[in-house]
Write a structure and sequence with these properties.
The chain starts with a strand and ends with a helix. It has 376 residues and is of the alpha/beta class. It is 59% helix and 14% strand. Strands 1-2-3-4 form a 4-stranded mixed sheet. It has a 3-stranded mixed sheet with strand order 7-8-9. The protein has a two-stranded antiparallel ribbon with strand order 5-6. The protein has 2 domains: 240 residues, no CATH class; 127 residues, CBS-domain. Helix 2 runs parallel beside helix 4, helix 3 packs antiparallel against helix 5 and helix 6 runs antiparallel to helix 7. The protein is globular, with a radius of gyration of 26 Å. Helix 10 links the parallel strand 7 and strand 8. The protein is built from 11 helices and 9 strands.
Length: 376
Amino acid sequence: MFGKRIKLFKLLGFEVGIDLSWIVLAFLIAWSLSVGLFPVHFKGLSTGTYWLMGIIGAAGLFVSIILHELSHSLVARRYGMPMKGITLFIFGGVAQMTDEPTSPKGEFMMAIVGPLSSIAIGLVFYLIYTLGKQGGWPQPVNGVVGYLALINGILAGFNLIPAFPLDGGRILRSILWGIKGNIRWATRVASAIGSGFGIVLIVLAVFQLFQGNFIGAMWWFLIGMFLRGAAKASYQQLMVRNALQGEPVRRFMNADPVTVPPSLSVKDLVEDYVYRYHYKMFPVVDDGKLLGCVSTKEVKDVPHEQWEKKRVEELTAGCTSDNTLTPDTDAVKALSLMNRTGISRLMVTEGDRLAGIITLKDLLKFLSLRMELEER
């Protein structure tokens, strides 16, 4: 879903970051408020004032979305659902779960709290707006506060639409899951509705285009495409987890992986291993003992003229929890680790010995075959 993610800060133990696409959205929101909404509703102000209102309004929306996603994260943690963090991207924000909900009740509570928090935030801003209006506050201040009250109400209403993976879709899935006791069936139904809603938005975009509203048509089209893709991806993700759940890593690992000795020169590493096997990482093994690993990342830091003199042992990095696991580790956890770290080759260890290598390619081959057979 995301491209390059920028970490901002931690809030109540959750890492908050933004996708680069959010920068585009923030500019578009500030621009549309500054040259569109505020000048129409608040006449006679200076251009600088409109832009200041737009920037503050965009920042207020930024905080509102973080609080919305934070409420999801806090309830998820309460019900034992691990959260990776909160990321803001071009279509808003998402609290990133590293696993599926553990129960219908847990998902229902986690999903419903998001729109409820937006409603609460909107009511607080509306109360401030009312007090400001009665107290004769400056028009620009009341304008921004009124906008934030309205936008939080819209945010709550949109998220309550029963189209997975919106909050309303998750609420629907939790209810269906609770009724039938089958999360796969519930996800399929909720995802189909989400995909259908995406089509509705795309059709709406076409009508907007014919009416000459190009900007509105573009946004409806992009949101519709996003919802269709996200609904399909959510169902496929569940299928993947179901296929791998309970399967130990030892079933998929290569028990006889390519390793390199610590005495090998960097030149020989590149020519005889990297260019031959096309791997970016190799375990470093000496007399059966795993010393660590060496990757192309370390090789790139060595000047080319030193490749013949430098030995692999000088570049060997120690094994960490980011690139190692045990043979009995659940394959779902291996896939989650690959997804979180971006590492597609993991070392499987038993004590100080290398038991094997598991790769994303191995897991995908198994998934492809299993899902093909289950479709039949």
